[in-house]
Amino acid sequence: MSVRTTRRGFLKWAAAGAVLVAAGAAGVATTRREKTSPETPAPEQPRVMKFSHQWSTADVRHVWAQKFAQMVEERTGGAIKFEIYPAKSLYQPVEQWDYLVAGDLEFTILPLDYASGKAPEVSITLMPATIANLGHGL
User: Fold this and answer.
1) What is the pLDDT of residues 58-78, one digit of tens each?
2) Burial bucket for residue 39 (CB in 10 Å: 0-12, 13-18, 19+)
3) pLDDT (tens digit, 9 = 90+) per residue, 90-119?
4) What is the pTM of this model?
5) Hey, CA dihedral for 21, 27, 31, 36, is it positive or negative?
6) Considering the chain, what percentage of its residues have pLDDT values greater than 90?
7) What is the pLDDT of residues 15-56, one digit of tens each?
8) What domains are there in the chain, each with its CATH number?
9) What does the alpha-carbon distance between residue 61 and residue 63 come to, in Å, rounded to a whole number?
């Protein structure tokens, strides 16, 4: 049996996976939140996540970031919100990997080769046609 996927299908699965990761992170943050007192419960505040990228607001990758943020906010009922920082406005492109690993940045769109000096296995993303389809990749 051959498993074949389209770019659209891949993006849907990637977005779904990211939503699950974000929802899990929000759940962990909620369970670790301290209560002020039993009599006055703290109001539920949305989890705000930073999303940084290097492209201008006219670039399709910024549109993807906005669409992703919109989908997550809708599917979590507003429990997770995003602050999107386009055009290198939060971090420089190559630095984003370090901030992501350190936990200071939750989401980014970047060429994975930016991280190849620190995580050599991501260099495989530069090799065309290395993985033929989703089944081969899995």
Assistant:
1) 999 999 999 999 999 999 999
2) exposed
3) 999 999 999 999 999 999 999 888 998 999
4) 0.62
5) positive
6) 49
7) 555 555 555 555 544 444 444 455 656 668 999 999 999 999
8) 7-33+46-137 (3.40.190.170)
9) 5
> What string of DSSP letters covers 55-112?
S-TTSHHHHHHHHHHHHHHHHTTTSEEEEEE-TTSSS-TTTHHHHHHHTS-SEEE--G
Whether residue 80 contacts residue 73, with contact meaning beta carbons closer than 8 Å, is answered with yes
Six-digit token string for 101: 């690993």
Between CA 72 and CA 64 the distance in angstroms is 12
87: left (phi over 0), alpha (psi -120 to 50) or beta: left
